[in-house]
Structure formats: structure tokens, C-alpha cells
Write a structure and sequence with these properties.
By secondary structure, this protein is an alpha+beta fold. It has three domains: 85 residues, no CATH class; 130 residues, Band 7 domain (Tetrahydropterin Synthase, Chain A, 2-Layer Sandwich), CATH 3.30.479; 59 residues. The chain has nine helices and ten strands. The strands form three sheets. Strands 7, 8, 9 and 10 form a four-stranded antiparallel beta sheet that branches. It has a three-stranded antiparallel beta sheet with strand order 1-5-2, with helices on one face. The chain is rod-shaped, with a radius of gyration of 38 Å.
């Protein structure tokens, strides 16, 4: 999309010089009113100078770092003023203040269905800032998005901030639902599949990409977005917890059995290599059975002393 934003190229005067000129005009107007009794034309000059004073006084701009003013001349976009300091510009220009600073958004977690259809609660925090002032003010209806109380202030910076935050909030909700619906909460069957729980970095990158695609129309750029809350919905949380516990128990048992088998094999090999005892197949089977019971059992083994032959 074509970038229609450009810097303001009209006449700009140092604010302090313009302030001196404005004060001089005001004092001259007062002088004319004082001399009105001695000269009949003086009141007229005083009125003209007072109108000129009011005209000049409406052209001052005071701007801090990472702020901008969008200048509009009778409905026509005249450019964006981004200089920091105190200046004077054409008073006939309408000045709309916007902030270019980075802002956080931390909405409440929402309920969505993951790829498997399971309802999950998911929340995120994102950092965003305004990059294109033309799109922000003229590509979306930022005035109507602002609250009524701020909308009546005549396009103040706070009203536009409310509008942009509202727009980002709605679009971030839609983007989060879209991304979360493409992945499962977790997947014990396939370790290669991306999941919401196990692949946070990849999911966050996809979330940033989706957010920027949605917010580019408003000139807003998301610098970072991260999932900060993830849980099963309350109605299935208990069932899924039991499933996770079962998966953990099975994984632990598999590791215990693998270790027990290797230990039994090591014991039989050492007994045979060192000539401690010679066992036939039946005796080996009995020993393997006893060792596996001891190594894999949950309760401590109760030794039995065999006083007869082995």
C-alpha cells in the first residue's frame, strides 16, 4: 500500500521569536486603544491588531520527543510535524496531536477452541506503537472509536489514544483467536507438531506476524507479542489434568523399566563373567523376575534369606 504520510514542508518559525512578535502586536493594540481619544482612527487599528494577535496566538506548537501533530488545511492533509521543541506554524492549519511512543496492551484472557476442539483460556501481552500518522487518522474512523467524553474535546491526543487502543484491542482479540485455533494445546502423540504449550517462541512469532497484518491498515506496528496465560477451560480442566498425570506416570514407568532391564542385564553378565555362580535358564528367569519386581516396585522389597540351595 502506498505511503501517503510526509513531513510538513510549510513555513515554520521559532516559537520564541513568534512569541515576541505576538507580544509586540498585543502591546501595539493596547497602545492604540489608549490613544483612541486623541485619534479617531486608533480604535480601528486597535481592533485590527487585536484580531492579528488572536490569529498569531493560535499558531504555537509545543512538542515533546516521540510526539507528532498531523496538520490539515481546510480538510486537506498538509503533512506531519515531528520536530521537538517550541514552534509557530500557520494558524489556519488544524492540528491533531498523536503519540508515537510504545504502549502496552494486556487484555483479559479469552476462551477459544484449539486445533483439537478443546476449549482453552489464553491471554497475551503486546507492545505496539504508531508508525504511520496518515493511516492512523484517515484510513480508520478514529474519531468515532473514541469515547464520547473525549470525542468532545476536539481531537485531543488522549481521544486518539483511546481510539487506537480500542482498535488494537479488537484486532488483537481476533488475531489471538486465529492463531490459537491453528494449534493444539499439547500433543503427546507427535513430538514434531507445534503446540501452544511447548512451542512458545514459534507461536509468538506467528502471533506478531498476524497482528501486524491486521494492524497495518491503521499505521500501527506491533514490536512484541507474547502469550502470558494458557490453561484449559474450567469445564475440562479436571479431565485434562488426569490425562496429563496419566501421561507423566506412563513416561516415568517407561524410564524405570528401561533402567531396570539394563541393571538386570548388567547383574547377570557380571555374575557370569566373574564366575560367581552358574545359572541355567530357569534360574536366570527366576532371578530376572525377582530383580524386576524389586527394581520396578513402588514399595520397598522384603528380603527373603534362602538357607538351601540356590
Amino acid at each position: 500500500m502506498e505511503n501517503k504520510e510526509f513531513d510538513y514542508k510549510g513555513p515554520v518559525l521559532n516559537g520564541f521569536i513568534a512569541l515576541v512578535i505576538t507580544i509586540v502586536i498585543f502591546l501595539a493594540a493596547i497602545r492604540c486603544f489608549i490613544l483612541a481619544n486623541s485619534n479617531s482612527i486608533m480604535p480601528l487599528w486597535g481592533i485590527l491588531l487585536m484580531i492579528l494577535f488572536i490569529f498569531f496566538a493560535k499558531g504555537f506548537i509545543k512538542q515533546e520527543p516521540n510526539e507528532a501533530k498531523v496538520l490539515v488545511f481546510f480538510g486537506k492533509y498538509s503533512g506531519t510535524f515531528k520536530r521537538t521543541g517550541f514552534y509557530w506554524v500557520n494558524p489556519l492549519l488544524s492540528k491533531k496531536s498523536v503519540s508515537l511512543r510504545a504502549r502496552n496492551l494486556n487484555p483479559e484472557p479469552i476462551k477459544v477452541n484449539d486445533k483439537s476442539g478443546n476449549p482453552v483460556l489464553i491471554g497475551m501481552v503486546l507492545v505496539w506503537k504508531l508508525e504511520n500518522t496518515y493511516k492512523a487518522l484517515f484510513e480508520i474512523d478514529s474519531q468515532s472509536l473514541a469515547p464520547v467524553s473525549t470525542n468532545q474535546r476536539g481531537g485531543s491526543s488522549s481521544s486518539f489514544s483511546y481510539a487506537f487502543e480500542n482498535f488494537v484491542r479488537v484486532q488483537s482479540d481476533a488475531a489471538l483467536r486465529q492463531v490459537a485455533g491453528n494449534y493444539a494445546y499439547d500433543n503427546a502423540d507427535s513430538a514434531d507438531e507445534l503446540t501452544l504449550r511447548s512451542n512458545a517462541e514459534e507461536i509468538n512469532e506467528q502471533l506478531v506476524k498476524t497482528l501486524n497484518e491486521r494492524l497495518s491498515m491503521a499505521g500501527i506496528h506491533v514490536t512484541e507479542a507474547r502469550i502470558n496465560y494458557l490453561a484449559y477451560a474450567p469445564e475440562i480442566a479436571a479431565v485434562m489434568l488426569r490425562r496429563q498425570q496419566a501421561d507423566a506416570i506412563i513416561a516415568a514407568r517407561e524410564k524405570i523399566v528401561d533402567g531396570a532391564v539394563s541393571m538386570v542385564k548388567m547383574a547377570l553378565d557380571k555374575l557370569e563373567d566373574q564366575g560367581v555362580v552358574t545359572l541355567d535358564q530357569d534360574k536366570k528367569a527366576a532371578m530376572v523376575s525377582n530383580l524386576l519386581v524389586v527394581l520396578c516396585g513402588d514399595e520397598p522389597a522384603q528380603p527373603v534369606v534362602n538357607s538351601g540351595s540356590i
